[in-house]
Write a sequence for this structure.
């Protein structure tokens, strides 16, 4: 469906069902769980950024009466078995294990080396001193330039670059290379009348979720072991832990606690497998928590990047060629989001000739994890900066330049499919007509505009809707709610069933109570789990019609159901949902609907952001004075949470652009591992983020939904960067635009 | 596990006796907003904590013709609500208002900020600019130390074992005198000064600066007085030449480091900018006096 449609509940701003518990402190997050007999685990972390482990001796710890269990890499059965010995084990699993407990080398400061469990948290922490580790420090490799230098120390001495045109003959710190192309890039540049070429870099940044990682695990010999943790995907926690510890999926039950933010960073495991090993060895439930410092040093941040962009265009604004060379830091182990970075970099543009080359580079920093549209903010920052430079160079309005080259239905992407109906042009038009874009600028104020693209995904979701005899019910879903999705599920089910959303209690069920669900990520939940909710609700409607038909002694085809009421088309009879439920016992038992789907047709979401900054010419301090986020939501189920996603993405992107960065010492020790000196924006730092919801429906979703969670972090980097450049009259090529860097630019000018 | 002994005496003599006779390393605590964080790094050591908030004169603030007698443990939230104090020393009160968050200000104190002796402490330059004197009490009696001599290094002060800071005396400003304290942080709050500057100055009826004191923070191991900046201002109408000279003097006096919060070049430049702005603001405040 894509035509306009009247909704009763969709588009309303209902009270979120999880809100009261969260604001009153009743909601239980990862560290809130306790179990009878529970003990505490603690992790010994590497004091070196790069070192060989010459020996690891846990004898003293094991002999201590305080210590109930010790864990090291050797406790992973799956990486010690025959497959590992034969070298046939998937290397990614081995690397996952080494990132959880180091094997024979430490690759970043703070990497977990061993763990102990003791009766109290303090005793466990104190017992870490009883583990003896002998290190041979190696030179840390902390930047892309250092990593790809000819004489760079190797993090992984046997790692050969994948994806080279000729197979690699020498090991290097480049884990992989990829290229994507479309058309004839040389011909495209030959056609050009103007060329813009520039290199950019972005720093290592963290998602900054407020809740540190935490888990409580109880090993059980006679039934499933239980893992309680905040995660974006408890089914994937189950899968990873099962793989690492050679368990069947049925031997594990994972319960997703409430989650205090994730943004992609809670899509992997750090503590859970360790706690399970410790629980198995001690026979006790084990709790483990990270400090904020641990989170910065040893969970996955987002890649630092270096990008070179070259754009060729005609003087009328027709872009003839776009080329990118993108380097992404993977951290200690391969697997940066270089792939999506390459795929997204030029997707907002319908250009004939494209060439993109990407490199995945290992460095002595924590292994990166997903962060909201992983890979896209870095590459699209560079591309959008260059597009704005082109606009200035040919004297064209940046919106007009984008409209002239905008991706639209039928545009062939560089990564495969042609775009279906998308909302980029609608977002650009909305930006052009916005009050913000028409407003004038004051002194020392610059304005930047940037577009952003993210694919969004669908995938597997499973939902059960159970109705009670009084017409209330539950929605069992398996998608952890990190952005208000329970409210959206409630509303979509209510829309189909024609009842008030509050009649249905949405529950994020554990891995035993609902079938497999993919992780909450890729902006998939409202789209894919929403589709499952709709399908399950439609199944309920079918049953309601059958039950009403049975009561009236007619066929189901003779029953119409709308607005929560079944009508007998052959007579005047009417039965509400609650009345049908009340009579369910007589018509065949209670009523449930299920849906287990693999959702296809996720609609990409494009965004356009406008940013005004004021730069203090004497200190380089940059203040965002006005900001507008415009994005295509397809259909906003709950507009407040859609706006919240736009604003949240914008704010995280502003932080990335202005002040956030990992600051490292020469030894590879992060010097700002806390929120005091890792400067995410405060509420008082920012103006209200204005939003404009554009709705170009996604025809693959019954209500037209596109995911909205990630795209919003893509445009801010270039919107802010361009605004700063305009305010100071100098090119900006390096993020963050922190005051010392901006002041240096200002002083170099005068 | 280390033992922690806690006392909360109600008289100054009792407090001095406790720290003088302590068999454990003793720490005087007022709000504890720095100390409790530092204690997490001292968990392995036995120690004595002497909480001085229950001593009435430690949390009092009295104004008379001599000036302000400030109890070092008075929490910033109570100080910043005192309009009578703010009228005389607006820069000092604003410095107290910049420390931490609203919640932290319910505990944190000017005396604690001073004794903790962080190079970036906000109240120290403002105290110095106002000519504040520390009244130090100990078993060997009482001594008076100017704030600029009280802090001796990063995290170091001049207190001898058995001594504590008993009071801060801030002289009554001359007529037509005001102060200002400005700091640079990349955000709007909840941060640590990358550079700071306090200026107290006196203008005559013609707008000519007759007295000034300038102190800068976060650009050296301790807050420092910049006499050359004061000299540049005195005798001027705070014209461009005077302000530029004062800024240059502050930049020259700075001896900063590069760290996660800022570079040498940035701090050196910005402390000059802040000095200029603080002088201008203080002068505006004099102009606004009735």
């Amino acid at each position: 469906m894509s035509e306009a449609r009247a909704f009763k509940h969709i588009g309303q701003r209902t009270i979120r069902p999880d809100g009261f518990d969260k604001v009153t402190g009743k909601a239980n997050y990862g560290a809130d769980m306790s179990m009878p007999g529970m003990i505490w685990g603690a992790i010994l972390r590497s004091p070196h950024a790069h070192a060989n482990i010459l020996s690891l001796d846990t004898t003293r710890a094991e002999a201590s009466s305080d210590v109930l269990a010790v864990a090291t890499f050797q406790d992973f059965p799956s990486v010690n078995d025959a497959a590992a010995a034969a070298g046939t084990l998937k290397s990614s699993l081995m690397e996952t294990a080494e990132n959880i407990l180091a094997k024979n080398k430490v690759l970043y400061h703070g990497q977990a080396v061993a763990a102990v469990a003791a009766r109290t948290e303090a005793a466990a922490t104190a017992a870490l001193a009883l583990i003896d580790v002998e290190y041979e420090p190696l030179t840390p490799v902390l930047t892309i330039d250092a990593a790809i230098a000819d004489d760079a120390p190797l993090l992984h001495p046997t790692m050969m670059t994948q994806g080279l045109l000729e197979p690699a003959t020498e090991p290097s710190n480049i884990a992989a290379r990829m290229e994507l192309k479309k058309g004839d890039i040389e011909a495209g540049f030959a056609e050009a009348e103007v060329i813009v070429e520039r290199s950019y870099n972005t720093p290592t940044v963290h998602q900054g979720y407020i809740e540190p990682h935490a888990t409580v695990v109880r090993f059980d010999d006679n039934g499933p072991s239980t893992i309680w943790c905040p995660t974006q995907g408890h089914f994937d926690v189950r899968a990873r832990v099962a793989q690492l510890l050679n368990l069947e999926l049925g031997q594990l039950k994972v319960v997703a606690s409430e989650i205090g933010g994730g943004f992609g960073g809670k899509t992997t495991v750090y503590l859970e497998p360790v706690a399970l090993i410790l629980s198995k060895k001690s026979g006790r439930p084990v709790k483990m928590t990270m400090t904020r410092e641990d989170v910065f040093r040893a969970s996955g941040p987002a890649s630092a990047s270096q990008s070179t962009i070259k754009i060729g265009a005609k003087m009328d604004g027709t872009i003839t060629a776009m080329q990118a060379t993108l380097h992404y830091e993977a951290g200690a182990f391969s697997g940066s989001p270089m792939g999506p970075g390459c795929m997204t970099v030029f997707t907002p543009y319908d250009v004939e000739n494209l060439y993109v080359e990407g490199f995945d580079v290992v460095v002595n920093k924590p292994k990166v994890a997903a962060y909201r549209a992983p890979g896209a903010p870095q590459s699209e920052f560079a591309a959008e900066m260059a597009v704005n430079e082109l606009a200035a160079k040919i004297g064209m309005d940046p919106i007009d330049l984008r409209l002239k080259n905008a991706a639209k239905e039928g545009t062939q992407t560089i990564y495969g499919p042609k775009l279906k109906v998308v909302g980029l042009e609608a977002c650009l038009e909305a930006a052009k007509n916005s009050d913000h874009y028409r407003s004038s600028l004051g002194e020392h104020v610059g304005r930047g505009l940037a577009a952003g693209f993210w694919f969004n995904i669908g995938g597997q979701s499973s939902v059960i809707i159970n109705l009670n005899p009084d017409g209330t019910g539950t929605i069992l879903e398996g998608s952890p709610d990190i952005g208000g999705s329970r409210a959206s599920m409630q509303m979509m089910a209510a829309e189909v069933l024609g009842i008030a959303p509050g009649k249905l209690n949405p529950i994020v069920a554990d891995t035993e109570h609902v079938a497999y669900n993919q992780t909450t990520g890729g902006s998939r939940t409202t789209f894919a789990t929403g589709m499952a909710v709709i399908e399950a609700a439609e199944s309920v409607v079918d049953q309601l019609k059958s039950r009403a038909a049975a009561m009236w002694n007619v066929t189901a085809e003779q029953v119409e159901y709308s607005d929560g009421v079944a009508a007998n088309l052959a007579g005047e009879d009417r039965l509400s949902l609650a009345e049908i439920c009340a009579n369910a016992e007589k018509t065949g038992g209670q009523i449930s609907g299920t849906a287990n789907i693999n959702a296809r047709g996720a609609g990409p979401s494009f965004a356009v952001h406008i940013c005004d900054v004021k730069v203090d010419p004497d200190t380089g301090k940059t203040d965002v004075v006005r900001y507008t986020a415009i994005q295509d939501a397809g259909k906003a189920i709950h507009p407040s949470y859609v706006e919240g996603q736009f604003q949240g993405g914008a704010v995280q992107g502003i932080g990335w652009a202005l002040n956030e960065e990992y600051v490292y010492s020469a030894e590879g020790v992060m010097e700002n591992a806390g929120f005091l000196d890792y400067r995410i924006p405060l509420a008082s730092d920012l103006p209200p983020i204005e939003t404009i919801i554009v709705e170009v429906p996604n025809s693959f979703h019954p209500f037209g939904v596109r995911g909205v969670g990630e795209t919003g972090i893509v445009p801010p980097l270039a919107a802010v960067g361009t605004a700063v450049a305009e305010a100071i009259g100098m090119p900006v090529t390096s993020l963050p635009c922190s005051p010392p860097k901006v002041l240096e630019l200002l002083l170099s000018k005068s | 596990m280390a033992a922690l002994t806690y006392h909360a005496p109600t008289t100054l003599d009792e407090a001095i006796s406790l720290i003088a006779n302590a068999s454990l390393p003793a720490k005087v605590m007022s709000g504890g907003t720095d100390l409790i964080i530092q204690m997490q790094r001292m968990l392995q050591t036995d120690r004595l904590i002497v909480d001085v908030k229950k001593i009435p004169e430690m949390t009092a603030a009295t104004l008379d013709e001599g000036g302000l007698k400030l109890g070092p443990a008075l929490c910033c939230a109570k100080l910043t609500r005192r309009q009578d104090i703010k009228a005389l020393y607006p820069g000092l009160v604003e410095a107290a208002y910049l420390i931490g968050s609203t919640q932290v200000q319910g505990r944190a104190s000017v005396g604690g900020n001073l004794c903790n002796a962080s190079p970036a402490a906000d109240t120290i330059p403002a105290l110095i600019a106002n000519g504040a004197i520390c009244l130090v009490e100990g078993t060997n009696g009482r001594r008076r130390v100017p704030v600029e001599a009280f802090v001796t290094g990063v995290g170091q002060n001049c207190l001898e074992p058995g001594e504590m800071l008993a009071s801060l005396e801030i002289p009554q400003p001359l007529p037509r005198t005001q102060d200002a304290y400005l700091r640079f942080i990349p955000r709007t709050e909840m941060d640590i000064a990358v550079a700071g500057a306090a200026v107290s100055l006196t203008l005559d009826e013609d707008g000519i600066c007759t007295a000034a004191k300038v102190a800068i923070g976060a650009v050296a191991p301790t807050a420092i007085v910049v006499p050359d900046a004061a000299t540049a201002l005195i005798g001027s109408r705070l014209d461009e030449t005077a302000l530029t000279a004062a800024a240059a003097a502050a930049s020259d006096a700075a001896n900063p480091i590069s760290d996660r919060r800022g570079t040498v070049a940035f701090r050196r430049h910005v402390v000059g900018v802040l000095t200029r702005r603080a002088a201008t603001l203080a002068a505006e405040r004099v102009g606004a006096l009735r």
User: Anything to note?
Assistant: DSSP finds twelve helices and 14 strands in chain B. The longest strand of chain B covers residues 163-171. The first helix of chain B runs from residue 12 to 20. Chain B has a mean pLDDT of 96.
